[in-house]
């Protein structure tokens, strides 16, 4: 099956006849679907075709941004304004499409008050939820002296 340079279906023909037809147009014969029955070939300028394909691949790579994991670290003695500032920064990360790892770090004797760390994390997630819809990727859990959770922006 051969498709002409203007997109018209020229029907079935031998490969020799198709090559001669392409040469008469000063173009190339390119097999678009070699596994089809019969194979589909198109008469086109192969250099231009390859350039357009590379251009579209570059545009796709440019638009496909990998999500990153950003980290916000809190301490149980954090002030309300500082908490809101960190929440504001987290919202920026979420708006950019990144995930945010929220970590509450306890030091020394603060380990005796783990409930304060849990309360701070819940309060921080609440402040985030006021600003933007979020989903919790990984529920809060303890790992050593750190209470952490991962959140991302809720998909529409």
Automatic annotation (TrEMBL):
SUPFAM superfamilies documented for this protein: Translation initiation factor IF3, C-terminal domain, Translation initiation factor IF3, N-terminal domain
GO biological process: ribosome disassembly
Location in the cell: Cytoplasm
Lineage: superkingdom: Bacteria
Domain called Translation initiation factor 3 N-terminal: residue spans: 2-59
UniProt cross-references to Gene3D superfamilies, sorted A to Z: Translation initiation factor 3 (IF-3), C-terminal domain (3.30.110.10), Translation initiation factor 3 (IF-3), N-terminal domain (3.10.20.80)
Main location: cytoplasm
UniProt entry tagged with the keyword 4Fe-4S: no
Pfam families linked: IF3_C (PF00707), IF3_N (PF05198)
InterPro entries (alphabetical): T_IF-3_C_sf (IPR036788), T_IF-3_N_sf (IPR036787), Translation_initiation_fac3_CS (IPR019813), Translation_initiation_fac_3 (IPR001288), Translation_initiation_fac_3_C (IPR019815), Translation_initiation_fac_3_N (IPR019814)
GO molecular function: ribosome binding; translation initiation factor activity
PROSITE patterns xrefs: IF3
Record domain Translation initiation factor 3 C-terminal: where: 67-153
Alphabetic keyword roster: Initiation factor, Protein biosynthesis
GO cellular component, one term: cytosol
Entry function: IF-3 binds to the 30S ribosomal subunit and shifts the equilibrium between 70S ribosomes and their 50S and 30S subunits in favor of the free subunits, thus enhancing the availability of 30S subunits on which protein synthesis initiation begins.
NCBIfam families assigned to the protein according to its UniProt record, in alphabetical order: infC
Family per similarity comment: Belongs to the IF-3 family.
Subunit-level organization: Monomer.
Protein name: Translation initiation factor IF-3
Organism of this sequence: Candidatus Alloenteromonas pullistercoris
């Amino acid at each position: 099956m051969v498709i002409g340079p203007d997109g018209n279906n020229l029907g079935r023909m031998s490969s020799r006849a198709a090559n001669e037809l392409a040469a008469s147009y000063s173009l190339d014969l390119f097999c678009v679907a070699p596994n089809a029955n019969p194979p589909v070939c198109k008469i086109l300028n192969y250099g231009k075709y390859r350039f357009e394909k590379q251009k579209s691949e570059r545009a796709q790579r440019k638009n496909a941004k990998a999500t990153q994991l950003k980290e916000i670290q809190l301490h149980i003695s954090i002030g309300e304004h500082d908490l809101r500032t960190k929440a504001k920064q987290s919202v920026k990360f979420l708006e950019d499409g990144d995930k945010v790892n929220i970590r509450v770090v306890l030091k020394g004797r603060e380990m005796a008050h783990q409930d304060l760390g849990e309360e701070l994390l819940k309060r921080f997630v609440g402040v985030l939820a006021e600003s933007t819809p979020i989903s919790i990727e990984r529920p809060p859990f303890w790992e050593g002296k750190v209470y952490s959770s991962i959140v991302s922006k809720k998909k529409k």
